[in-house]
Amino acid sequence: MKVITRLGSDWFAIPCTGQERCQWLCDEAVRRAVKRHPELEKKFDLLELRKTRGGAVLDGDDLINSVLEDEEHVSVVSIYDVNGGAGHNGINGHALPAEIVDRKFQGPQEYLMLDGNSLSCADLFDLGKLKYKIRLTPDSEKRVKASRALLEQIVADNKVVYGVNTGFGKFARTIVSREDLDQLQLNLIRSHAAGIGDCLPIHRIRMILALRINVLAKGFSGISYPNLVKMINIFNASCLSHVPEQGTVGASGDLAPLAHLALGMLGEGKMWSPETGWADASLVLAKHGLQPIVLGPKEGIALINGTQLIAALGAEAIERAENAALQADVIAALTLDVLKGTTRAYDAAVHYARPHKGQIAVAQRFRALLHSKTHPSEIAGSHRFCDRVQDAYTLRCCPQVHGIVHDTIEFTKGIMTTELNSATDNPMVFADRGETISGGNFHGEYPAKVLDYLAIGIHEVASMSERRIERLCNPTLSELPAFLTPNGGLNNGFMLAHCTAAALVSENKVLCHPASVDSLSTSAATEDHVSMGGFAARKALKVIENVERVLAIELLAACQAIEFLRPLKTTLPLEDVHRLVRTVVGPWDKDRFMSPDIEAATELIIGNKIWLAVQDHIEHYFNQETADHRFTCDSPTSASVLIDHRQVVKRRRVSQDNSFDVERPSPKKEKA
């Protein structure tokens, strides 16, 4: 038999009888690696052997044929891979996909054109998920070359410019000799790569790199065009530097994480690619036939001065929050129907009397999802003559509470979209004016503030959701079996699932404390006010992760509640939601291990599957409206023009043959 063994950037087909120990396999891989790379002798500090697919740890004393099959793939893992935070095969989200392990991986074939002016949050999130490669537009190429030409003229004229021929921060008045200008930039990257903590997940590193390239494409940074092309090639090959998540204070930008990002592109530190896993950056680049960046004057500071960690993580937070908020509307509507609530509170007249955009939109969605002439509900029909006139606030006030969440996301997205397409360097190079100007565009207060706001906003849908879970589980409030389980007492049902939701909501209350209200003076009081935007972004994502899980628990509880109301059916769109959930999680007729079911439902939320299940039904509802926008039906509903919070931001793309495929949703998105 033979075992395909990866060490660093190399894969070895190692023949064996199968009777050898796994430790022998490690030793043999090291021997072969040193034979290929003699300079690496004594540099392998090995820790363990893992299966490449799945990441299972193998005991060195086990016989090879007792734990591995013929031609199975394994990876020899160094202490750095695990303890250094780089992650490997399942640690910190860096598992190699099966198609990579099987050597069948193909990168994206479609390109997204970057011009520094039109990148959306959705675009950036898609770039992180390996949906596109990138190219520069011709206009961007011209701007980049013009700014570099000006910078080189400044150096030739021996003019003093901050960060070009001076020190940094407190050393701004220190003049650096011309022969040391390149070393100045290299020293900057090495010294500022001082971050700590777990490595960011791979898709977020891709987002940060793509965003930095987009900012450089604006032509205000002074980077050389050849080095920018190297960065693009590195991105397109998914050669990604090890970037720790902690160490930025958000002014002057995200210096530490961006320095780590740059360090790998210089051929130093660690790098990851789908083909190599984690290895020395120089080896990863060489494996892909890529040349490391060689820094000239100002190019070090051009790579690290900016808010790209805050903004990249913020873009993901916004996209996930938007999906979660839309699905919260759907899940809340499902809960309302199974709790036999009234739809009168969603009458359009009520909401046009207080015409907040998000409130009106949520009420519209509720009317489209709940009992109507277009979408009748047998459950609603079963209690049409009850004496209930109004419901609890977590049902009745969804338009008012969920509405401001949607408006918050929309506001946050507007700020963040501007940030994604902003020059955040210092100094800035203005080729058209023939000058450089020192400013403060690197300060992360804008994205930091809105991400704190986003966390506070999106938390509220989980706060509402947890209370609705309580109503579903409490027989006094729901008129359903306690904790939604048959044979209660022997079975516990959703008792602890609700506790989990309560724990997550309570955790979010702490995480919603704004990071951006804090500031600590750094760099010997030169940088005497900072944004703390890096933590604002990271905790916003954590809040959203918790929200997704709380919504998943409510979704499962509402679907379980329907089982006790059968054979009655809810509306067609909500039945489709129930049907979707039942493809991954079955009903509970007795207690079972619940955590996997919560995770399965959470994956539906993350994938926006709940919204996609009802989207066409909502559109159909509004297409069926009468001329006066009012239905005559048992459950009073009315409607107006649907406010769409999911307008797709069209992208500028180019095909493999370089022909442009430009979709123009509005004049402001048109590009030359």
Give an overview of the whole structure.
With 672 residues, the chain is α+β, with helices and mostly antiparallel strands. It has 25 helices and 16 strands. Strands 2-1-5-3-4 form a five-stranded mixed β-sheet. Strands 7-6-15-16 form a four-stranded mixed β-sheet. It has a three-stranded antiparallel β-sheet with strand order 9-11-12. Helix 13 packs antiparallel against helix 18 and helix 19 (445-473) packs parallel to helix 22 (533-563).
Topology of this protein?
Blueprint: E1 2-7, E2 10-15, H1 22-36, E3 46-51, E4 57-58, H2 64-67, E5 73-78, H3 79-83, H4 98-101, E6 111-114, H5 121-128, E7 133-136, H6 138-156, H7 181-192, E8 196-199, H8 202-216, H9 225-236, E9 240-241, E10 244-246, H10 255-265, E11 270-273, E12 277-280, H11 281-287, H12 299-304, H13 308-338, H14 348-352, H15 357-369, H16 378-381, H17 393-396, H18 398-420, E13 428-430, E14 435-437, H19 445-473, H20 475-478, H21 495-511, H22 533-563, H23 572-582, H24 595-606, H25 609-623, E15 652-654, E16 660-662
Parallel strand pairs: 1-5, 6-7
Antiparallel strand pairs: 1-2, 3-4, 3-5, 6-15, 8-10, 9-11, 11-12, 13-14, 15-16
Helix pairs in contact: 5-8, 5-13, 7-10, 8-9, 8-13, 13-15, 13-18, 13-19, 13-22, 15-18, 18-19, 19-21, 19-22, 21-22, 22-24, 23-25
Low-confidence stretches: 82-103, 626-672
Rg is: 28 Å
Structural class by SSE content: alpha+beta
Q: Figure out the total of helices.
A: 25
Tell me the strand percentage band.
5-15%
Give a brief outline of the structure.
The chain is an alpha+beta fold.
